[in-house]
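User
Class, as today's exercise, I want you to study this protein, comparing sequence with structure tokens, and judge whether sequence predicts the tokens.
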Amino acid sequence: MRSELFSAENLEKESAQPGLRLQNSKLLKAELNGEFMARVGSMVAYQGNVQFEALGSGGIGKFLKQKLTGEGVPLMRVRGQGDVFLADRAADVHLIDLEQGDALSINGANVLAFDSTLSYDIKMVGGAGMMSNAGLFNCVFSGYGRIAVTTKGSPVVLTVDQPTYVDPQAAICWSASLQTGYHRAEQMGLGTLMGRTTGERFTMSFAGQGFVVVQPSEEFPGGIGGSGSGQQAGQGGGLLGNLLGN
């Protein structure tokens, strides 16, 4: 049998080391000898002795935060021995290695999989207020390990060494040490009063030293767990404040 389908670039890539690695730009391969965490429903194929266990949002505290904020990562634990392939609607997959002391703030909708050695929590984006219902809450990852994130198209990594502004629906992740806020990008004028708009009403602002990853697409607000983060956050009241303080 002959076909370009069977060319070397499409054959499974083998490695002697376990862990998360790219099969190609849109497919993640996990050579499993132990366990890792993955987005629910992201498995497209596997070989070997592998078990999948649903974890919700990763614990009761994160479950409650997800319900109140609309943000979070619906997780499954993948364990055993074998090869597991994961993807998310043919989005581009990128690997990030975190070391001790690193912390990464990431949109939960862009988390594909991560090593179980990493930990994460749902945090309010500093300075967001109630100006926008997109990007109010993000997942902050820390610890030592590898995480796979997805983007729609090839992203740009901006070095924050001057005031930086990003559409909140296009921001994938950023250094957790950065100071964030919201900036009114659209200027008030006669056109605004007459109902005209540029579609760029608010942007996220970043200051400090670090980076921001921006995709060439705008996600719908609300992250993974639901929709309307701002509305849900408003309904959360004091309980949300207590949860985010933990």
Q: What stands out?
A: The helical segments are 60-69, 190-193, 229-244.
